[in-house]
TrEMBL record:
<dbReference type="GO" id="GO:0016491">
    <property type="term" value="F:oxidoreductase activity"/>
</dbReference>
<keyword id="KW-0560">Oxidoreductase</keyword>
<protein>
    <recommendedName>
        <fullName>Gfo/Idh/MocA-like oxidoreductase N-terminal domain-containing protein</fullName>
    </recommendedName>
</protein>
<feature type="domain" description="Gfo/Idh/MocA-like oxidoreductase N-terminal">
    <location>
        <begin position="25"/>
        <end position="134"/>
    </location>
</feature>
<comment type="similarity">
    <text>Belongs to the Gfo/Idh/MocA family.</text>
</comment>
<dbReference type="InterPro" id="IPR050463">
    <property type="entry name" value="Gfo/Idh/MocA_oxidrdct_glycsds"/>
</dbReference>
<dbReference type="InterPro" id="IPR000683">
    <property type="entry name" value="Gfo/Idh/MocA-like_OxRdtase_N"/>
</dbReference>
<dbReference type="GO" id="GO:0000166">
    <property type="term" value="F:nucleotide binding"/>
</dbReference>
<feature type="signal peptide">
    <location>
        <begin position="1"/>
        <end position="22"/>
    </location>
</feature>
<dbReference type="InterPro" id="IPR036291">
    <property type="entry name" value="NAD(P)-bd_dom_sf"/>
</dbReference>
<dbReference type="Pfam" id="PF22725">
    <property type="entry name" value="GFO_IDH_MocA_C3"/>
</dbReference>
<dbReference type="InterPro" id="IPR055170">
    <property type="entry name" value="GFO_IDH_MocA-like_dom"/>
</dbReference>
<keyword id="KW-0732">Signal</keyword>
<dbReference type="Pfam" id="PF01408">
    <property type="entry name" value="GFO_IDH_MocA"/>
</dbReference>
<feature type="domain" description="GFO/IDH/MocA-like oxidoreductase">
    <location>
        <begin position="154"/>
        <end position="289"/>
    </location>
</feature>
Length: 387
């Protein structure tokens, strides 16, 4: 028998709901470094669809699109953010080019994932945050703080929140490595320029600061820092020497708003050592957490456990580092869950609400970054952050 009118309406509604939830999240990427080398393969691996790529050179954009099977190639940011085949814009440009691209993506009504650091200054970060706040409330505006999505670090947060290591007494981050923009044979680029938002603190320290904010549920209250460029000058592509104005080494002492001390030490140049060390140690009154960022491994000595020096619990190591190999696909899963309600694996709802870094988080980390640079310029003078 023919379907009644209300039955036809119900069937169409159910089909529409099903289609809405099965629609892919289509991603356009501005930037051909991290965006192509990491986000394209890792986001695809968890179900995001890469539909557009931007480069300042149209020929390069087209070559990348052909190589990676991306339908649309652009040399215009305006054209990419206006493309009907794009839902989410990943802004993985050099830092000094980030604000303009982000503002255009927000104005076009797209969801946005911005690389860190958010901007070259707190003022620029706040301009981006205000634009996001003025956008429709169903738009996502995210910072690429993918460490929040790493399962081992989420487990660490659970240990802290549950009191499994007692009261947190101090946190230490240490990185000793040869960064690509500082190693022998490297040429001068935006990472070597403070004016362009470069330096090792912007590259790695921003992740550490957000990691502390996430794990401890505290803001940074005070900062004292020392910085050195390590390389005083570097040649450009034509061999002409350029003065290095960004930090190659930083030692920063932070006090969280509850008084917890945090020490950050980063050296981006260690000749002969390769990628030597990148880890966090978090000491509590009754236990200790150690996390290896290179191998995505958590070791926990929990309160009340008789471990004879051995970890009470170990999580990892994983096949790769916490940023590109583990954090980025997990971030992709979280984005997919946030925008569609679906994921390629079971994830609890708090992953969306608690694990994603928003523009607000990016702005707060930028405030700390500016304070680190200001303190270093004033020979380590303490900088008090107001909220």
């Amino acid at each position: 028998q023919p379907l009644s009118a209300w039955m036809r309406w119900l069937l169409l509604a159910l089909v529409g709901i099903s289609c809405a939830f099965s629609m892919p999240v289509r991603v356009g990427i501005i930037g051909t470094g991290w965006g192509v080398n990491v986000q394209v393969p890792q986001f695809r691996s968890v179900g995001l669809e890469i539909t557009a790529i931007h480069s300042r050179s149209l020929a390069r954009a087209q070559a990348i699109a052909k190589e990676h099977g991306i339908p649309h190639a652009f040399d215009s940011v305006d054209e990419l953010v206006s493309c009907d085949a794009v839902d989410l814009v990943c802004v993985s440009t050099p830092t000094h080019e980030r604000k303009n691209a982000v503002l255009k993506a927000i104005a076009a009504g797209r969801h946005v994932l911005a690389e860190k650091p958010m901007a070259v200054s707190f003022e620029d970060a706040m301009e981006m945050l205000e634009a996001a706040r003025a956008a429709p409330p169903d738009r996502l505006h995210l910072l690429d703080f993918e460490l929040r999505c790493v399962p081992a670090l989420r487990q660490a947060q659970s240990f802290i929140d549950n009191g499994d290591i007692g009261q947190v007494q101090f946190v230490s981050f240490s990185c000793l490595a040869n960064f690509g923009f500082l190693k022998d044979g490297a040429t001068f680029g935006h990472w070597n320029s403070r004016e362009c938002g470069g330096g090792v603190f912007s590259a790695v320290g921003t992740h550490y600061v957000d990691c502390c904010r996430y794990l401890l549920s505290q803001e940074v209250g005070k900062v004292s820092a020392v910085e050195l460029p390590l390389n005083l000058a570097m040649p450009d592509a034509d061999g002409k020497p350029n003065a290095v104005t960004a930090d190659g080494y930083v030692s920063a002492q932070l006090l969280m708003t509850d008084g917890t001390p945090v020490h950050i030490s980063i050296s981006g140049r260690a000749p002969g050592a390769g990628m030597y060390e990148n880890r966090m140690v978090l000491v509590g009154s009754g236990g200790t957490l150690m996390f290896d960022f290179f191998h995505t491994e958590l070791k926990a000595w929990l309160a009340g456990a008789d471990s004879n020096g051995e970890p009470t619990m170990t999580m990892g190591p994983e096949e790769g580092d916490a940023w590109s190999k583990v954090g980025t696909p997990q971030l992709g899963r979280a984005i997919l869950l946030a925008l569609t309600g679906e994921s390629d694996q079971q994830e609890p709802a708090p992953l969306v609400k608690e694990s994603l870094g928003m523009f607000h988080d990016g702005a707060q980390v930028q405030k700390v970054t500016d304070a680190v640079h200001k303190s270093a310029a004033e020979h380590g003078a303490w900088q008090v952050l107001e909220y």
